[in-house]
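Exercise 7.
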Amino acid sequence: MEFSIKPLVPGRNASGCTVVGVYADRKLSEAATTLDKTSKGYIRRVIDRGDMAGAIGSSLMLHDVPGIASTRVLLLGLGPKAEFAEKQFRRCITTAIEVLAQTGTVDAELHVTELAVGRRDIEWRVMQTARAAREATYRFEQMKSAPAKEAPALRRVVLAVAKSDEKRAARGLSQGLALAHGISLARDLGNLPGNVCTPAYLAEQARKLAKHYRFKVQVLERADMEKLGMNTLLSVAAGSSQPPKLIVLEYRAGPKTQKPVVLVGKGVTFDTGGISLKPAPEMDEMKYDMSGAGSVLGTLKAVAEMKLPLNVIGIIPATENMPGGRATKPGDIVTSMSGLTVEILNTDAEGRLILCDALTYAERYDPAAVIDIATLTGACVIALGHVVSGLFANNDPLAREVLSAGEQSGDGAWHLPLHDEYQDQLRSNFADFANIGGRPAGAVTAACFLSRFTKKFKWAHLDVAGTAWKSGKDKGSTGRPVPLLTQFLVNRAGKR
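Solution. The predicted structure, written as tokens, is:
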């Protein structure tokens, strides 16, 4: 799907469809009012018949509207004008693209970036339009012998803007498409099966990304990790025939003296639970346990396409977690790269074991901030569901930055506590501490475990177990939290 920016008067362009908005109580948007005048009241007459009340998510397709050059007019419900905000804006874009994709429309013009969305400027509105449109048409069919259905006819979308807004809108479009590409990469990786998306496959995708965008890339093998003393990471890999990888990508477009932001993504390409085997139902979904890794690669792709002037390091510890004769056993004690010893009481609490060594490895970059991203705990799903990601941090200003980026991008997070009292649950009689703290506050104690390896830098942890994946009939990767992470880096770069 191609996007372009043009100053257009509604109804004058001979497109396949003109898309305008209608607020609740049948109030016309500015573009819809223009169409109504051109059609000599046709739009208003249709609405007054009760076919379109303006409820959010609703739509009405009109054909051959008198005086209008386009073949079709699509009326989008916007909900109450006083309540029209970021969430409603993104939803109306998604509705428009989904409806258009079900028609024979080849091209369409969208008059929605004119809509007031709080304090969000034209650049933000265009960026979110491009992102929402691409997400609405995403399909994962790489593993099928033939596409499940024909591709939508829609090929070209023109975003109508005022002449004075063209330059800023063009920047927003460029950023929105870059973000959409990053989200799609993360979704593709999350949707691939475990027999394809192995640690070696992730490493190869990182190399391809590095070659295309001229990153520096390094892939540490098992022997390299052994020399570094990454025994907690290697303990998770012990039962698998797939060799583990530690993938490091360096994007350096900022000043040489600028400290980098480090993103650490959990890359368990399939998680059986190891010896602490998971139940069989829905275990197939454990291919998405590398979503943290996918989000790091997706974010770096977006950042590179945006050409953000900053330094970012991506670190991905990648492995499978499998049972086997050499697998780590409950009760085993291992020494992490930091020198701290861990009693592994549950081998299904493996994400923190690979992340802790990666966090210690991050110290060498003297980072400005470190954010780790992981589908870490089922407890976070119970606490927050599938709406927002869990956020923990050892630095309140950093936490506020992450929360703000989530709010801006519509990829929200919720700040959860990291009080010292929770650390007591990780006590061990035989090692420095255990890898689990019992059922109470499971997401918190997992974050407490990680916090013990983050004393030397500002750190935030995103538990995306509930937001990186959808189950049910819409089963698949969501690409979150690529929007949040990208917005965080856009803000850091001073672009907005």
